[in-house]
Amino acid sequence: MSALLSLQLSTAREGERVQERRGAQDPLDFFAGPQPGRRCPRPPESPAPAPLLHTVWRRPRGRPATLDGMPAAMLPYACVLVLLGARTSEAAGMAGAGHLHWEPSCQQPLPNRALVTALLPPRLDGPWISTGCEVRPGPEFLIRSYTFYPNRLFRAYQFFYRDPSCSEPTHSLLIKGRVRLRRASWVTRGATEADYHLHKVGVVFHSRRALLDVARRLDHSKAGRDCAHRLPPARAWLSGALYELLGAGAERDCAAALGFTMHELSLVRVQRRLQPEPRAAPRLVEELYLGDIHTERAERRHYRPTGYQRPLQSALHHAHPCPACSLIARSDEHHPPVLPPQAALPLRLGGHWVSPGCEVRPAVLFLTRLFTFHGHNRSWEGYYHHFSDPTCRQPTFTVYAAGHYTKGTPSVKVRGGTELVFQVTRARVTPMDRVTTAMLNFSEPSSCGGPGAWALGAERDITATNGCLPLGIRLPHVEYELFRMERDPLGQSLLFIGQRPTDGSSPDTPEKRPTSYQAPLVLCDSVTWGFSPQHGARLQTPVRGGTPCPHVAPLPVLLLVLRPAFFQWL
């Protein structure tokens, strides 16, 4: 058998734009994240695949839900705890060198999070590029190259391919428009909301086959058929010719008929970090996070992002080595980047796999993950650490899950991917802040972990109760998964696990199997992190004129600010 945990989380979020259409439920992934510890010895590699925890938050029956799905009476406590920065959890995490008693003794730490800085307000000026081939739901294989100008105008290239190595280009999109930053997002902490307006969208086909594929997609609707007639017949295809889908010369918006949007520009985050360099000072890397893409093509026109895609990197300050970066930066709609073909690596997942940084999911989820695979009996176990902030400093709860998985088979739908089935048979939960602890104690008796009260930082087994109703955890649970393994330019092994459905549903049937991937996990003993203290100041100096995120206010200051409002509420 195989094993994967799906924890599905549905929150009553009145007023969130992401819920405007069909009351869509947003997915939540629980984290198993690494804590500071010793370097992990690498066990012998053995074929195995990795699981993914997916969560749906269900509020207890009969209790009014607030925006975060907790009982309304608890909202004042929640506000105070969030503003206090979850200091109790932070202090607990510092004790014992950051180790929690239920976790493996050998874990790989996250990078030094003090050396990752978000720039507020974000400065978009300059060129931003993909660092390799990206996979969107569908699947769609693409490379992005965006340039933003000081007058708020932008020019974007999206290059589409037939293969996961991005070596066989099909067509390129040229997008021009204007973007305006608005305000800090009240939905996704650490992000900035933006408005955009498209001036022009054009397409260049790099083969007759690509032209026929796009025309076939347009034939699925009446508006699309009208647009398909504007494209030349395949026999009249001209290499390098630009056909306008949207603009002054277009009679209708044919980009919309294709399902094209740039809603990714409505959510923005610019982040700066330091990349370690062997025998040299760390290198400054700037990353641009744009809004996530809905996993269902039909919903993309109406979806407003609450999570991120794989980040773009500044063409001026990108990670090294990056064999594709200079090639991508020089490309345009007539000359798409052609990356060298890469052979798919076999899945060899023995050992520990960790999140290299804080991950963000739709519906305001921040997490880190840690997986361990045992190839001799095809079993797995994982920790999912959940946080309330985009730097993963303020823990809220942890889920431990374990089970089995099936032998992988090559995916027919997604080239380069491997299909597996995961089953979750055991799970444990640890509340890491007072709000989560109180919520679990308010739950129905024996609905989560059996009799007895929940305590902050104390782990409890939820297997006997078939999961945890307040958290939406169901046991046993089966999911149909997609995995892929790669090596980055530094030789580190990367593990990609299937992207969770945006609507909050579970891939519990073969038809719902993912067609794209989440952020990669890194093999534990292939990662080395660490910086000299003097390098930390580089992240506090604005490069593009932006300002770093402010530090969390000290506890006494927050108490002075909160005291009048808190006692007024009492």
Entry summary:
Residues 1-11 have a biased composition (Polar residues). The protein has helices spanning 75-83, 87-94, 208-218, 222-228, 254-257, 325-329, 434-441, 555-569, and strands at residues 116-118, 126-129, 134-136, 140-148, 153-161, 169-184, 192-205, 242-246, 267-277, 280-290, 312-314, 351-354, 359-361, 365-374, 379-387, 395-405, 409-410, 418-431, 460-461, 467-468, 473-474, 477-487, 493-497, 521-523. With 570 residues, it is α+β, with helices and mostly antiparallel strands.
Shape: globular
Structure class: alpha+beta
Q: Total strand count, please?
A: 24
% residues in beta strands? 25-35%
Helix content: 10-25%
Give the rounded overall mean pLDDT.
Answer: 77
Q: Count of helices? A: 8
Distance between the termini: 54 Å
Q: Give the spatial strand order of the biggest sheet.
A: 2-4-5-6-7-9-10-11
Radius of gyration: 24 Å
Runs in which pLDDT lies below 50 for 5 or more consecutive residues are 1-109, 526-570
Largest beta-sheet details: 8 strands, antiparallel, barrel
